[in-house]
């Protein structure tokens, strides 16, 4: 009996002084982050506030998810790091910004990660979580673009919202509704047709 009790004691997890439910911390962080991002948006959500809602230390959020942007990507189940695409857009000259955005986004949609992005969009549509979608588009994907085009007379918010509307429509018709011949068109054909309109939204007359 003594040996049996000793074996059971060895099988028990060691006490670490961590808070109860630590084994479910990752899921608790994701739930808390989803609620925060949906309610407050990306910019007004902090790692500390998410950690507080989840009942964990902020260091644990960083341990599991890294940066706030990576946490957001995990919440919306984005299959790639948006920073890679954003860097390509950041390096584009202002007068080629519309083309750069379009090429970068189309390249992702048509890559192996594209199926995951389409699945994410379908999930957002089915779940009605438009706050997350809006935050992702305007506060992550297009915010750095907005800062580049903003002037004292125009903060650029309408301009990037118009770009977002064009990109959402293109994603829907190319990958979800599959409205031919848009799905069959090459990237070059789409860029030739759509990029000038995006550029007008960004830097032309509205």
UniProtKB/TrEMBL annotation:
The record places domain HTH tetR-type at: 23-83
Alphabetized UniProt keyword annotations:
DNA-binding
Q: Which residues form a coiled coil?
A: none
InterPro entries, A to Z: HTH-type_TetR-like_transc_reg (IPR050109), HTH_TetR (IPR001647), TetR_C_16 (IPR041678)
Name by which UniProt lists this protein: TetR family transcriptional regulator
Transmembrane helix is among the record's keywords: no
Mark the transmembrane ranges.
Answer: none
Region feature (Disordered): 1-26
**Segments of the chain annotated as binding DNA:** 46-65
Q: What Pfam families does the database record attribute to this sequence? A: TetR_C_16 (PF17920), TetR_N (PF00440)
């Amino acid at each position: 009996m003594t040996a049996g009790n000793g074996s059971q004691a060895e099988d028990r997890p060691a006490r670490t002084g961590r808070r109860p439910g630590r084994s479910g911390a990752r899921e608790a962080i994701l739930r808390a982050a989803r609620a925060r991002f949906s309610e407050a948006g990306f910019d007004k959500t902090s790692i500390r506030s998410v950690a507080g809602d989840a009942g964990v230390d902020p260091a644990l959020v960083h341990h599991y998810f890294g940066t706030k942007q990576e946490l957001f990507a995990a919440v919306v189940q984005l299959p790639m790091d948006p920073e890679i695409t954003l860097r390509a857009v950041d390096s584009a000259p202002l007068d080629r910004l519309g083309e750069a955005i379009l090429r970068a986004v189309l390249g992702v949609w048509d890559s192996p990660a594209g199926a995951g992005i389409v699945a994410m969009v379908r999930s957002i549509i089915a779940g009605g979580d438009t706050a997350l979608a809006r935050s992702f588009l305007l506060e992550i994907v297009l915010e750095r673009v907005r800062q580049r085009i903003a002037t004292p007379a125009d903060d650029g918010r309408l301009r990037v919202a118009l770009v977002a509307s064009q990109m959402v429509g293109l994603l829907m018709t190319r990958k979800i509704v599959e409205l031919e011949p848009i799905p069959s068109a090459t990237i070059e054909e789409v860029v030739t047709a759509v990029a000038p309109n995006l550029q007008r939204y960004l830097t032309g007359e509205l």
